[in-house]
Amino acid sequence: KYGESRPAFTPVHPSDRANEADGHAAYNTGNANDRLGEAIAATDPKAALDRYAQALIAYRRAIVAAPDDLDAKLNYELVEQKLINRIPDAPRGMKIVYDAEAGKVRVVAQ
To answer: Which residues are CB-neighbours of 22 under 8 A, at least 6 positions away?
Structure first.
């Protein structure tokens, strides 16, 4: 069902000035992508990594919309760690960052 619900939240554009409704939609998009990643991790690890990256982007949008949203911040950190742990042979000390200009998640040294 998360796969069915995700498109409903996706229309929120990342460059829109965030408001409460955008924040909720972005948060829900993050949750849907995280759960989809979990569901496919065993059968399609590469696709799961993409879902986790998309979840991070959505949670970052939720945080921009509502900087005091502790749930979005916590979920961002949890998915960030999940993503780092799934990157094959990633050395410790790596960090996931959201490049807002490019609209992408990158892995960089801390």
So the answer is: 12, 16, 61, 65
The answer, as to whether pTM is greater than 0.70, is no
Distances in Å between the alpha carbon of 99 and those of 21, 34, 35, 84?
23, 19, 23, 16
Give 8's DSSP letter. Answer: H
Question: Which positions of the chain have pLDDT values less than 50?
Answer: 15-16, 18
Contact 69/23 with Cβ under 8 angstroms? yes
Residue 33 has, within 13 A of its CA and on its CB side, a CA count of 28
Cβ 12 vs Cβ 25: under 8 Å: yes
Q: What percent of the chain has pLDDT over 70?
A: 66
